[in-house]
Amino acid sequence: MIVAQRDYNYEYPPYTSEKTGQVKKSKKKKKLKNLALILFVGSLSVMILFRYAVIYQKSIALDKMEENIRYTENLNQQLKAKIAAMSDPVRIEKIAKDKLGMQQPDESQVVYVNVGKIDTVAKNQKPEDKNVERSNFFMRILGVLNR
């Protein structure tokens, strides 16, 4: 048996610098793209963190306002209760008698006043209406003269 020798070609093409220039450019482009991506992601994360910080501050301010509202409403209820206690007619009458020396009027001290009939009041309003009509008439004349 005859063994054929195989022809192995171990010759490699010479190393050229043209490829290194292209590799350097592509590496620079990749580095710039990576840097731009990192800057974009970093700025986006900073904006998101800032937004959450603002939301947190507003939440704290809202809690303080709600606490202030609860305090004011509680104070308002206490003051309403105090007003109700102070405006009790029995208490007012007691203070008037004890501290101010007042007393209920006797029959001889009561004076009844007759205010008149309703028709009288209606008659008193009619002359005012005439004055209004007169003033409207004169205002119309003055308005015509001003034009």
From TrEMBL:
Coiled coil: none annotated. Its main location: membrane. The chain crosses the membrane at residues 34-54. It is found in: Cell membrane. It is a single-pass type II membrane protein. The keyword DNA repair does not apply. HAMAP family: FtsL (MF_00910). This is Cell division protein FtsL.
